[in-house]
Amino acid sequence: MSPHRSGFTLLEILVVLVIIGIVLSLAVVRLEPSPQQALQQESERLALVLEAARDEAIARGEPIAWSHQGARYQFWRRQDDWLPLPDADTLKARELPSGVAFGEIQVNLQRQGEDGKLVFQPSGVNELFRISLVGPQSRLELVSDVLGRVSLSQNDVPAQN
């Protein structure tokens, strides 16, 4: 009679590790949003944050401004000069996710460069704006109305050769 051996063989352990590796790699792939999902999520986030900036300007009784430079945007408050908004959880400076970029930005139907600011007034009466966010295959536009609400509209981006 041979003695009873307990435990697993090296081959059994390797098979289990390979299966775990495959399952984890599939889970990681699913956790990473597609470029279209990243564009949609960032557009929705920016729309909500811009509405929050409008509300914050009204609540504080002082102007709040939004500006962008490259793929980064941040908020400002006005004293004698524009100063970065400190310790604002919702209105903190952010970076656009990879694959998402700013397109054309218009304030009162005028094209705005990176040096311009979109100002939210404490009176609640604000300039109309249109902010375009561009992804690999589509473009979303954030458009304000006279009440300061921000809506999204989608435009297809033609394929570039």
Topology:
Elements: H1 10-31, H2 35-60, E1 64-69, E2 72-78, E3 82-84, E4 94-95, E5 101-107, E6 110-111, E7 118-120, E8 129-134, E9 138-144, E10 150-156
Antiparallel strand pairs: 1-2, 1-7, 2-3, 2-4, 5-6, 5-8, 8-9, 9-10
Walk me through the structure:
This protein is α+β, with helices and mostly antiparallel strands and 161 residues long. It has one domain (35-156): 3-Layer(bab) Sandwich (minor pseudopilin epsh fold). The chain has helices spanning 10-31, 35-60; strands at 64-69, 72-78, 82-84, 94-95, 101-107, 110-111, 118-120, 129-134, 138-144, 150-156. The strands form two sheets. Strands 1, 2, 3, 4 and 7 form a five-stranded antiparallel beta sheet that branches. Strands 6-5-8-9-10 form a five-stranded antiparallel beta sheet, covered by helices on one side. It is elongated. The chain starts with 9 loop residues before the first helix and ends in a 5-residue tail after the last strand. The model has no long low-confidence stretch (mean pLDDT 85).
